[in-house]
Amino acid sequence: MKIIETNDLTYEYPDGTKALEKVNFNAEEGKIVALLGPNGAGKSTLFLHFNGILRPTHGSVHVDGETVSYDKKELLKIRQKVGIVFQNPDDQLFAPTVLEDVAFGPMNMGLSNEEVDERVKDALLRVGMEGYEKKAPHHLSGGQKKRVAIAGILAMKPKIMVLDEPTSGLDPRGASQILKLLYQLNSEGMTIVISTHDVDLVPIYASKVYIISQGKIIKEGNPQDVFEDVETIRGANLRLPRIAHLMEILKKEDKLPFDKPYPLTIGGARKRILKEFED
Ligand SMILES: Nc1ncnc2c1ncn2[C@@H]1O[C@H](COP(=O)(O)OP(=O)(O)O)[C@@H](O)[C@H]1O
Ligand SMILES: [Mg+2]
Questions:
Q1: Neighbours of 277 (CB within 10 A)
Q2: Where are the alpha helices (DSSP H) in 60-97?
Q3: Measured in angstroms, how far is the CA atom of residue 131 from the centroid of ligand 2?
Q4: pLDDT tens track for 174-225
Q5: Which sign does the torsion angle of CA 220, 242, 214, 60 carry?
Q6: Closest ligand 1 atom, residue 47 Cα
Q7: Which CATH number belongs to the domain containing residue 189 in this structure?
Q8: Both 214 and 247 in a single domain?
Q9: Top mutation candidate among 6, 10, 11, 13 for ligand 1, by most atoms within 8 Å of CB
Q10: What is the pLDDT of residues 211-250, one digit of tens each?
Q11: Are residues 85 and 33 located together in one domain of the fold?
């Protein structure tokens, strides 16, 4: 089932910037879907449509089988279903303490105090921010802010979690911890949609990839198929994953027998190289 779906979504900002043009994007329930594109391609603009923060200029958005409508009651409902973690945590965090920030969402859902406490504790633990409850969010590092922002969304237990560049600004360890968490949440049934320009991470986690460039979806499919189209990838100011690029060089420059499709991950490359040694 398509849990998020856009139909010919076009969006123009009030100043006339055409940010999205006839975008058809969908996320299957229970999957990890990646939206890959360079800066300014329209990733954040698209995501802000998934819980009704932005309203299409043309076209429509469907969530969990229902067309998004823009009255207050419907918007509240959809925002409990679709949790969006903004690209910039400063747009998300506002409360005086980490605890209050993470508790805000679940409290507004009318849950009991015990349930709220439980969820806040669990969410902070999962993002590795337990012990920071009394800190002011603006005293945290960028990576810590990002993790608290994720905890705030997590605490609402949304069916779908949408993360706009969740690993940008994080150190490698922080990034891999966040991705592991997303993988874990997904294995528990949550649908995950992420945007990124980090091509190395996409093939490890996503089962489906969309490439967006200048407001248009120019390619979609599983990572292997998408990254096989090297011209499109490079034409969109993106690159191959480093591992695939290395295999391409070994093939083209050094005439080693690594044919397309190039492996996209270290695991895939390892298998291919070992196979060459076997034969
Ligand atoms: N509030 C805004 N008003 C006008 N133009 C905007 C606004 N926000 C973004 N844009 C423009 O819309 C396009 C898409 O931006 P954005 O969705 O932020 O891209 P991405 O997230 O992929 O970097 C860009 O050309 C950007 O300059
Ligand atoms: Mg963005």
A1: 6
A2: 72-81
A3: 30
A4: 888 888 999 999 999 999 999 998 888 888 889 999 999 999 999 999 999 9
A5: positive
A6: 17
A7: 3.40.50.300
A8: no
A9: 13
A10: 999 999 999 999 999 999 999 999 999 998 999 999 999 9
A11: yes
Q: Tell me: do 28 and 140 sit in the same domain.
A: yes
Q: Are 88 and 146 in the same domain?
A: yes
Which amino acids bring their CB within 6 angstroms of ligand 1?
13, 15, 17, 19, 37, 39-45
Nearest residue (CA) to ligand 1, atom 17: 42
Ligand 1: distance of its center to the CA of 40 in Å?
A: 6
State whether 56 and 76 are in the same domain.
yes
Give the DSSP letter of residue 89. Answer: G
Instruction: Quote the tokens at residue 112.
Output: 């009991």
Residue identifier of the C-alpha nearest atom 27 of ligand 1: 40
Nearest 5°: the CA angle 206, 203, 205 is: 40
46 C-alpha to center of ligand 2: Å?
A: 9
Among the bound ligands, the one closest to the CA of 210: 1
| Structural domain boundaries enclosing 44 | 2-238
Do 50 and 68 belong together in one domain?
Answer: yes
CA 268 from chain centre, in angstroms, equals 23
Q: Which ligand ends up closest to the CA of 216?
A: 1
Q: What is the mean pLDDT of residues 59-76?
A: 94
Pair (278, 161) in one structural domain: no
Q: Of the ligands numbered here, which is closest to the C-alpha atom of 45? A: 1
The pLDDT tens digits for 79-88 are 999 999 999 9
pTM, to two decimals: 0.93
Q: For residues 198 and 202, what is the distance between their CA atoms, to the nearest angstrom? A: 7
Question: What's the pLDDT score for residue 2?
Answer: 96
